[in-house]
Prior knowledge:
Blueprint: E1 5-9, E2 12-16, E3 23-29, H1 43-63, E4 74-81, H2 84-91, H3 97-103, E5 111-118, H4 141-153, E6 155-158, E7 166-168, E8 174-176, E9 180-183, H5 190-193, H6 195-205, H7 209-219, H8 238-247, E10 252-258, E11 285-287, H9 288-301, E12 311-318, E13 323-331, E14 334-337, H10 342-352, H11 354-364, H12 387-410, H13 415-423, H14 429-437, H15 445-451, H16 464-479, E15 483-487, E16 496-502, E17 505-512, E18 521-525, H17 530-535
Antiparallel strand pairs: 1-2, 2-3, 3-5, 4-5, 6-9, 7-8, 10-11, 10-12, 12-13, 13-14, 15-18, 16-17
Amino acid sequence: MFGNIVGAGQAGFVFENPKNPDSYFKIVALPEQPLETMPLRSTKARLGAINQNQAELFFRLYQENLDIPQLPKVYAFYTGTVTPKLRRTLLNASEDPELKSLVRSLKINQKIAVWEMERIPCLSENEFCERYPTRQPLNNPDYQNLLNTMLDLGFVVRDVANPENFGYRENGTQVFYDPIVAPWPVQEVTKVSDPNLYARFVASFGPDQISTTRRAIDNGDYFGWYHSGGVMEAEMTNTEDAQVVSEYQNEHFIIIARTATGNDYKVAPLALYHAAWRAPNRKGMVKGVESLVQELAYIFDDLGTAPNPYALDIFIFDNFGRNIKLVGVVKYGKVEASYPHENLAKLLNRRLDFVRSAETLQDNYFPEGTIYNPNQSGAINWIKPAPYLLIWASFYGDIVEWIQENVYEMDDDGDSAIEMWERFSPDLKPLMKYVQENDLDSDDILPEIIEESPLNRPYSKVSKPQLLKSRNAGFLNFMRRATLSVPCAECYGKGYINRTAGEYDEHEWTEECETCDVDGEVEIDNTDNRYYRQHKEDYPL
């Protein structure tokens, strides 16, 4: 069904259609639980909401046969889960190590949506066929039709400014094939009347964007901008921006970095921001909002091999420079304001575009080829969990996938799989010893997987001690959610149990196996893993 992979991003993966060169398949991961039950500011909720909202949009295009020229035509739509066979097919669809590493995030049993959509010929990669000019938003009828039509459908739109998210048909129609959308209208009362609708908006756009979006639509600003990674380019008007800049133009700011250990502060450039305000010459002091923005960006642009800060505290001098007062904290990709500095926090969030940077890092951590430190990608970048943990979690996920794919080839009762699961740990020697002693890997695939350990990859600026230090935490981060399906021992993987009345009664009957709910398999989880049981309280997220 799927041909070569042609692209990947935060919202999913795009594959060629081997049976039709004029269409693509797109796959997105759907949330595993209702969004309203998740922390709405978490990266997991945000990506889940983005994918769910986009899937709903394209499902409606398909189901209702909607003719919206500014969106790609949808020829088919499916929902389901990732099976071992499908995952292997997807991994084999790319020889590009970077794309393959991203596809690995689609784990077995992950809920997905898939749709077949129109292939757009004129894209940024071919310079839009060298014949389609850039137009201002209000002078672009395609863009205006998109915004108005989507409002009629019950959606607001962002992330359409990126040239990689739109293209043109041969007839010149502009098509926005990868928009980020959220349901609209939404009010604070929606949190009670429709918690899922509220969660879908807040998780994808942000909790402070309900009033902002409404204001921008009402005053027309919404239609006058190409909305990028931030929800609204017009989140604050130019006048409001100027007022904030003017309000703080003579104020002096101090930035203090907080990390997991005090030793981190000895690493440049974080050393410059540790208790800088106490220095006699105030070297770490910056004046005005514009300088503050530049300084925050500088910190993360120049992290090098320094660790990601847990947080950055932003202080302002008070009482003629003798005291400092907290105005905001940069944490988990967002400036959280201290009263009464909310407008300053909004401006910083807009100017620095934290969310967009975090998305970029999530999609592109440790790419092969042009390799950079995961702490850095040209802006302020850090997410939770740290990219180091994500890399280790992906690596251990590949090993569990190997175990899973070989479960039914080992024996009928799943004992081998359970034994391997029990021995599974950050140190893979016990697992390898068991596999070798029991001749469980006739194809010698497992040693090849282990050889791909992050410690053996050419990550350039990434220090091996940093990777090794994060190994155990990455393992536990993976195991907190990991499960393994094994044949049910009660029914020998059949789903049904044959019963007999007794020694002198030959009456036989078949009943459903309650242990596996007739599925023929059961899940074992992290409680069956020795290392997890012993260390589950370590490295809390």
